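Lab manual, section 2.4: Encoding a predicted structure.

Procedure: take the sequence of the chain (473 residues), apply the prediction step described in section 2.3, and record the output as structure tokens. A sample record is shown.
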Amino acid sequence: MHAAAEPSERYKVTEVLREASSAGLSVCRTWAFSDGGDRALQISPGVYDERVFQGLDFAISEAKKYGVRLILSFVNNYNDFGGKAQYAQWARSAGAQINGEDDFYTNYIIKDYYKNHIMKVVTRLNTITGLAYKDDSTIMAWELMNEPRNQADYSGNTVNGWVQEMASFVKSLDKKHLLEIGMEGFYGDSMPEKKQVNPGFQVGTDFISSHLVKEIDFATIHAYTDQWLSGQSDDAQAAFMQTWMTSHWQDSRAILKKPLVFAEFGKSSKDPGFNQNVRDTFMSLVYRNVYNFAKAGGTMGGSLVWQLVAEGMDDYDDGYSIVLAQNPSTAGLISGQSHAMTTLANFVNSPNLVNTPEDLFSRGDGPIYPVGVLTTVRATQSGSGTATVISVYRIYVPSVIMPHKRINEKRNGNQLAPPPVQEDLLNEHISHAEFRAVFTTLAHLVVAQNSQQAAAPANLAVNTSAARIQDFT
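Recorded output:
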């Protein structure tokens, strides 16, 4: 929205959405706020700049064009683009007794300002599409606040009361769209034993109690280990991330019984010793967990890296910015994860399957039938020079999705399920997510086409000089 407020810069919004869509990304989270200051959407309480609002109209219309759904946030916890501090200043200027910016959650004047903004955005009629925002399916969800925090009450109770009030208000205006809070995932007083999972400090929110509010449709977490665990080793940060993600996934599944989205994570290029490999390794850890959690129970809904920008948007670079065209290895990771999650979702939602093929492997259901071989070829350095390593995997599909006319009992027999696919000892040939994407793509092709040879997408050939699938059903 901020960039699109200037018509001459709208091409940057188009570029980001086009690149994101090409990489397989399907959801983008962005701001529906800019309170006071430069290019303000809300100049003062209830007063809006139509030019900036039309920038948001354009962003939504472009997202629709490229098949990207949006999560729109109503306000910022921080001072960037105004935030709750600007609301507090507006109320103070109107004569209200304001003790600090955290009065945002309790002062009735500020809450009225905020509710008015929500109503203005939700009921906005898009000047390009002609649709009211509340009727536009391009918008996937509303977000109450980017990373709410409250230093005046570390228990989480104050923010929780605010969430209950504001969530009910949003749903009174719009029952069609999903709603989330925008929380980072810090635990509070409702389950004190969980506080040990926090990174050594509190922020005044309670992940459990606030996400149990019935109007909240899914939970979110964020994580910035380079900030939260500043000065600690990459291994220590990775260990924290593993615990952070696992704990929230388990709680979302067992306690909240709601989907979980990892809505912000990244590695800053401003960190000492940063290089692209460090960021890619960190992102691979996150992506592996997201995929495995999604496969295991369906509670994990996905992840959104912070943040994708277009070339020429240096003013928005906070250290975490990624220009896909300038970062091919990171773009490959993002694309690989996007396609892996998409194919997993297709399997989970397929009327022909009650479980993913890998679940069937682990349970030993059968019979199953071999449908292809994935062959990867890689040149590797050894003490005696360069050697070629060839890894071959037989790919199986459960009989429940094999077309009956193709079943050949004499050839295949009633085989028992093989053990999980094993990698070669070097463990470098192809990532788990990429292999799964190849597997699931092939399985769908077998069902849909039943006869044709399938070629692996080019972006799956990571660390290989060639990657191919041979169909021999």
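Check your result against the sample. DSSP finds 13 helices and twelve strands in the chain.
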